[in-house]
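U., I forgot to send this yesterday:
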Amino acid sequence: MRLYFSYFYSEQFTRYPEPVAKALRRALYYSNYKPDPKMALKYYKQAMEKCDEFQLDPFSNDVMGIKIQLAAWLEKIENYEGATRVLETLLTDCQRWVEVMERTVKEGKATQALMPPFMPPVAGASPRAEADPTEAPETIWGKRTRILGKSVGISVKLAELYADEHMLKRDLAHQRLIWAVETALGELQRRTAEKAKYGEGSWMSSSEIGGTLECEFYVA
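Result:
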């Protein structure tokens, strides 16, 4: 019982406003401790709705993490179609953000179009739900790196799911893996050819990209 309470009230949940954390605790309870797919799905959806209500950045690691956790749970209960739908939607959203970011940078509108507006404190948010003042703020290029890297990982996971014996959608698996590999290599080449952008951070290493390439032979 102590383990249950220490887990469900651990630091990982204090990053969220309390209503979001509460819904997540219930979702994980009905996922892992008292399995009930209907109730678990209800609270995952509620957690995401609360994220919208509290105007949390949909491309933050915390909010994207909820969707990735939902997909992982759907895979665990062998709802592969549901898992791929969640990940495909997230991948499309991430790809669209990167496309808009790159276009607005070229047009000189990146600051106005992509920097999040000021949000007043929201009642019910825990102190950890706010940005850590000791951390340097994320730049537009840093956010692009994070979202693009997440997109590559999601696409590889989709390739794995589509190649699974429960789905056997080899064409889709191949498409997702090719996109991931080409995107990872394209970004590496861009960074080699161009001067580093302010605050964009590091990218995947050659060995990490090589690991993705090895997956391609399996899927193909």
